[in-house]
Structures are given as structure tokens and as C-alpha cells.
Specification:
Helix content is 78%, strand content 0%. It is mainly α and 187 residues long.
Length: 187
């Protein structure tokens, strides 16, 4: 215990570090307060944004599966045609077409990667919001007992007009349906 107390003595080696840390935290607090309030205001729309991302991902996944099924069918038919053709020039053209169809199938793997990235980004934003809420709740509890902390917190209460605008810009237009996508691909 005495070792810990010695760290906080005025002539201690850690004092300059602690002073810099407190200056840094006091400089950072307004930025964090502003960001936290913005995140808190958009927290209510977070489930909506998350649902919209999930819905868009589900639609993209369904369309991708449809495309992949068609590509598999085309590839099989091309394979059968290639085996039955004797003319070298025609065979070469069909092999080239089959190769391009395979490239399309490989390119469609983006959908799964995109889905993973969207899910991860949503989880990160949710985790940041939870941690910032805990941080400010802890500071507010300390502020109830410590007037200096309360004064610091009061200085950084962000007015609504100062909040960083974060809007749910996810398209909420139901004008494109799965039937429209299916019709586009001739199903």
C-alpha cells in the first residue's frame, strides 16, 4: 500500500505522467461527450439501421443464391455442349464462355464478405455505444460525490445543436421486390 501511495507523492516520477494524462483527458472529454450524446440520440435508430442492414443483406443473399443457381445450370449445360462439339473453333469459344461464367461465380462471393463486414461494423458501433454509456454513467456517479468532477461534467454537457448529426440514411424504399429481381434474371 505504501508503494502505491509513494507513486502519488508530489516528487514522484509518475507525477508528470499523471499531469499529462489529466490534461489529455480534459482535452478529450468534450469530444467524447459530443460523440456519446450523438450516439445516444441515434441509439434508438440503431435497431432500425441494423434491421435495414439485415434486410438488405437478406435480399442480396437471396438474389446471389438465385444467380449462383443459374450459373451452375449454365455451367453444366456448357460442359455438356463442350463435350459434344467436334469443331475446334466452336469448342474454344464455348470453353471461353464457360471460363467467364466461372469468373462471375467467383466474383459473386463478395456478398458473403460484404455481409460479414456489415455485421462487424454494426457490432463495433454497438460496443462503442455501450462502453461510452458505462463510462459516462461512472463519471456521473463520481460526480454525485465529487463537486469538481460534477463541475467538469457540467461544462461538457452538449446542447442538441452541437450534437454531431448521425442519420439513418439506409434506403427504406420497398419499390424493388424480390419478384422484380427474379424478373430481371428471367425467373
Amino acid at each position: 500500500m505504501r508503494d502505491i501511495e509513494s507513486l502519488f507523492e508530489p516528487e514522484s516520477e509518475i507525477t508528470p505522467f499523471l499531469e499529462e494524462l489529466f490534461v489529455f483527458l480534459s482535452d478529450l472529454l468534450p469530444i467524447i461527450a459530443k460523440a456519446n450524446q450523438s450516439i445516444m440520440q441515434t441509439a434508438e435508430s440503431m435497431p432500425s439501421a441494423s434491421d435495414n442492414i439485415t434486410s438488405a443483406n437478406t435480399m442480396a443473399e437471396s438474389a446471389t443464391h438465385n444467380i449462383m443457381d443459374n450459373i451452375d445450370s449454365i455451367s453444366t449445360e456448357l460442359g455438356d455442349l463442350i463435350e459434344g462439339i467436334v469443331d475446334a473453333g466452336s469448342k474454344e469459344k464455348l470453353v471461353d464462355i464457360a471460363s467467364r461464367v466461372d469468373e462471375i461465380a467467383i466474383s459473386l462471393q463478395f456478398q458473403d464478405i460484404t455481409s460479414q463486414h456489415l455485421k462487424q461494423a454494426t457490432q463495433i458501433v454497438e460496443a462503442i455505444q455501450i462502453r461510452m454509456n458505462k463510462l459516462f454513467a461512472s463519471l456521473q456517479e463520481i460526480g454525485k460525490k465529487n463537486m469538481k468532477v460534477r463541475n467538469i461534467l457540467d461544462q461538457y454537457i452538449v446542447e442538441d445543436e452541437d450534437v454531431i448529426p448521425v442519420e439513418d440514411n439506409v434506403r427504406q424504399d420497398d419499390s424493388i421486390s424480390q419478384a422484380d429481381i427474379d424478373a430481371l434474371f428471367g425467373n
